[in-house]
Amino acid sequence: MAFITLNTDKLKHNFDYLNTFFKEHDIDWSVVTKILCGNENYLAELLKMGISQYSDSRISNLKVIKNIDKDAQTIYIKPPAKGVIRDVIKYADISMNTDFRTIEMLSKEAQKQGVTHKIIIMIDLGELREGVMREDFIDFYARVFEMKNIEIIGLGTNLSCLYGILPNNDKLIQLSLYKQLVEAKFNIKIPFISGGSSVTIPLVMQGLIPPGINHFRVGETLFMGTDVYNSAKFENMENDIFKLYAEIIELYEKPVVPTGELGTNLEGETYSFEEEDYGRTTIRAIVDIGLLDIDMKHLDPTDGDIKYAGATSDMVVLDLEENPKKYKVGDLLEFTMDYMGIVRIMNSKYIEKRIINSNTPSIIKTGA
Q1: DSSP alpha helices (H): ranges in the chain?
Q2: CA torsion angle for 140, 143, 149, 153 (degrees, to 10)?
Q3: CB under 8 Å to 297, separation ≥6 — which residues?
Q4: Which helix (H) or strand (E) is 310 found in, with range?
Q5: pLDDT averaged over the chain?
Q6: CA-based nearest residue to 256, from 278, 286, 287, 271
Q7: 6 by DSSP, 3-state: which?
Q8: Of 168, 194, 174, 211, whose CA–CA distance to 97 is shortest?
Q9: Where is the Alanine racemase N-terminal domain (predicted)?
Q10: Global model pTM greater than 0.85
Q11: What stretch of H or E contains 307?
């Protein structure tokens, strides 16, 4: 059976590194937990590490966090849909908002539940995903400022997720200027400017973050040790906290080129083959994962001799060529994944989720 592992020792290493880093720069940060897809065991391990604020775009995931620790502070990080307003007030201490009518509904529901709901107003700085347009922001803020049971605790922005618009000093200065503007106009103090995410961390290292930016939302760098801005990896962070293991369920020497009239496969693709491949054979292995679990472009075998040959809904076919490692049926093959690969595997109910650390007996046996 295929399974994914989370190494808690490596996760703790990354967590401690980032926690120290942000403290040194007087920045508060929230862990974006959506990569864990609400897995209770994985979330419980994360909550042991000592941060008090968690962000997610799924209410069901925030509910799991609150069930583990009712005092954990939670942030709902996308504009709420009408159908989840009640649960946003119930399970999210803070939500990020961009629509006046939505905030009106949050206000009414907060009054019903007898709570004050905190919000961060998101401003569009060019990424064209969520965010109030800059020219409308002051009027928008003035209207929200008067709402009952709503407390504006911050301003924020999102960059790089949709079109890859990178954060830079100019854009973040704009965000800081909006803070100064509303504080002066409304005679208030705004605690948080949430302008940072994994992609912004290298700018902090270079001293390019304006002083007003004091809140980060970080997921990918914590869980993968990635330098998102430069599409690289941080050398002093762990990059393989998650690994996927799939069992070989068939292994035979087979022709490289199929026989018969070629049509399209289940994804509508038509294959073509090189002339030199006709008549050649190779060792082929089938493993017990498929397209229902992951898109193969997000998955890499740790054994560099293994090549991807194709996949169907429940099986992946791999080319082992001469099979130098002498793999056999029943062996486990190890894979690493990018961010989207991990999310999709985590979201598959067919993949077992395991926790490992330095005290875990070896569960991996591959090759001869």
Answers
A1: 8-24, 40-47, 59-68, 85-91, 100-113, 137-145, 169-186, 201-205, 220-224, 339-346
A2: 40
A3: none
A4: strand 307-311
A5: 92
A6: 278
A7: strand
A8: 194
A9: 7-225
A10: yes
A11: strand 307-311
Q: Where are the domains of the chain?
A: 7-233, 242-356
Give the N- to C-terminal CA distance of the chain in Å, as an integer.
19
User: Which of 46, 51, 97, 55 is closest to 74 using CA atoms?
Assistant: 55
Query: 363 pLDDT exceeds 80?
Result: no
Give DSSP secondary structure letters for 205-266: HTT-S-TT--EEEESHHHHH-EETTTTEE-TTS-S-SEEEEEEEEEEEEEESS--S-----T
Judge whether 34 counts as a catalytic residue. yes
Q: Which is catalytic among the residues 10, 12, 23, 34?
A: 34
* Tokens (6 digits) for 331: 């062996």
- Closest C-alpha among 42, 45, 78, 39 to residue 61: 39
Q: How many Å apart are CA 186 and CA 252, to the nearest integer?
A: 73
pLDDT confidence band for 365 (50 / 70 / 90)? low
Q: What is the dihedral of CA 151, 146, 79, 113, to 10 degrees?
A: 60
Per-residue tokens: 350: 């067919």
Cβ 258 vs Cβ 231: under 8 Å: no
Chain centroid offset of residue 249 CA: 31
Q: Looking at the DSSP assignment, which residues form a beta bridge with residue 12?
A: none
pLDDT in tens, 70-115: 999 999 999 999 999 999 999 999 999 999 999 999 999 999 999 9
Residue 69 in tokens: 């620790």
Q: Once rounded to an integer, what is the mean pLDDT over residues 257-273?
A: 74
Our measurement of the distance from residue 368's CA atom to the centroid of its chain's CA atoms, rounded to an integer in Å, reads 36
The domain made up of 242-356 has a fold known as: Lyase, Ornithine Decarboxylase; Chain A, domain 1 (2.40.37)
For domain 7-233, which architecture applies? Alpha-Beta Barrel (3.20)
Round to whole Å and give the CA distance between 270 and 353: 34
Q: Is 55 left (phi over 0), alpha (psi -120 to 50) or beta?
A: beta
Judged by DSSP in three states, 56 sits in strand
Q: What does the alpha-carbon distance between residue 77 and residue 75 come to, in Å, rounded to a whole number? A: 6
- Cross-strand partners of 154: 120, 192
